[in-house]
Model the fold of this input.
Amino acid sequence: MAAMFSIPGFKRSCRVLGLFLLIAALLPATASAQILTLAHESQGAINGNQANAVGYAGRSADGSKVFFTTIEQLASTDTDTSQDLYMRENGVTTHISQGAINGNGVFSASYVGISADGSKVFFTTNEQLASTDTDTQIDIYQRENGVTTHISQGAINGSSMSAANYAGSSADGSRVFFNTVEALASTDTDGSFDTYMRQNGVTTHISQGAINGNGAFNVSYRNASVDGSRVFFTTNEALTSTDTDAATDLYMRENGVTTHISQGAINGNGPTQVNYVGVSSDGSRVFFTTVEPLASTDTDTASDIYMRHNGVTTQISLGEAGNGLFFPELLRYQCRWQPGVLHHRGRFRQHRHGLANRPLHARERRHHPDQPGRHQR
Done:
């Protein structure tokens, strides 16, 4: 026995184990219960254990409301075998995808969005769940306090054979954004995709401008501020006098005014695309990329990141060395660029062979000690 206790670390291990058991014994019973408690969310007032899969859809910010889809009937209001949307809260399962009319036809319902607190849930279906919906195309609905409301409708039309695509909503769910080719306002006279907003029972045409706005150009919703007051979208159509090219540009709609975001102190109307990449929560700072130099600090022809704030465009992708041809996805490549070529670690190096857009061969890597794989034979 003496030999066993002389094993290195044995006494220390025993002390650690004893300390662990002491802490476990001192933990309140309630704390232990909280750690071990599991909640079965995908169950209902009826059924719930058939061989039907359940799909997680979303949750409220605090996790108190959980949403899921299933073809199984988990409430007496669900009498079909199509996919429906349910909510689980405080141990109670509620059937979400039902309406003032119908609701049990052979139409699936799909979860698309939620307000931060989970009080407003948005879903799409081909089934008519309100008297304002008279077509069989995909429409957007909102469920709140046991009432289902038809979102994708307008001051005009709204029941043609055109689908509505949910785009997003404000954090409180009071503003809902969607895209459709159907004209839902008198300001929309083309047959292209436009962005609309539904708020307080009123549908507003978002993707319009000071000029034009009804050409054969689609609009893509990009994002909105948290409160939904600022909406961002891209289009090839020139919607302001500052946009004179036919390339994709980024716009903001706020208080009924459309503003050209992707412009700069210089240039701004070359044949180059703009890509939206992000926005601050209040929408005051918008970020996008383009290969077009929009500031005097940008002297290369590579893609750069810009920020638009208070009417001023600033180049973000700047370093101590200034400008250089820098594509992150090409870090392990050497590309032709005069007067040098891009090194895989972001540095420039002259190369007499003029290698263009390809990885180095093993023999070439051995001649460049910084390159990965230089010791390969």
In short: The CA atoms of residues 66 and 241 lie 47 Å apart. The chain has three domains: 40-150, 159-324, 330-366. Residues 10-26 form the longest helix (17 residues). The helical segments are 2-5, 10-26, 29-36, 362-366.
